[in-house]
Amino acid sequence: MTDPSDSIDGDPTPKRERVSVPDEVDLPRLLDFYELQTEAQTEIHEFYDNLRDGRLTTTRCTDCEEIHYPPRIVCPECTGDDLEYVDLPHEGELFAFSEVRGGLPLGLAEHDVPYVVGVVDLGPVRLSARIDDASYADLEIGDPVALKVVEIDGPTDEDRVFYRFEPSKGL
Ligand SMILES: [Zn+2]
């Protein structure tokens, strides 16, 4: 601790203790909102395996035929657990959208804002996703959007992917 009376030759300003902050903030596990994706870590690993292969899929109950999103391990309609993975369309329509301008959690890159998030209507299901390559002002409800698979950089060594959408090109 610095003695507050420890000042330089009559200078009334006391010497201050100098503290440092870390050069880097390790991303706390709770703030990494991308799920771990291997068989050892999640029972919906098949969803991520398919996504890694470029296919957007989800579960369908073989008993009541309900299609769920996100994928389930038990059917929320009939509690059956005989589910199969089915392909979802890779193109849909923008059902709703908004823009994120700030307030990002610790560890997320501030340079990423603003970005657009939306609800995409794929027909069988609606899902929320980030909408890349568009600004809020460019978009309208009903705009066609297409799937885009991205690879996630860190903070684990695991090879992870996730889905986003972007405005459809050349339709
Ligand atoms: Zn069911």
TrEMBL record:
Domain ChsH2 rubredoxin-like zinc ribbon positions: 51-84
Q: Where is the ChsH2 C-terminal OB-fold domain?
A: 85-148
Q: Where is the composition biased (Basic and acidic residues)?
A: 12-21
**Entries under Pfam families matching the protein:** OB_ChsH2_C (PF01796), zf-ChsH2 (PF12172)
Gene3D superfamilies linked? 6.10.30.10
Q: Where is this region: Disordered?
A: 1-21
Q: Which SUPFAM superfamilies match?
A: Nucleic acid-binding proteins (SSF50249)
Q: What is this protein called?
A: DUF35 domain-containing protein
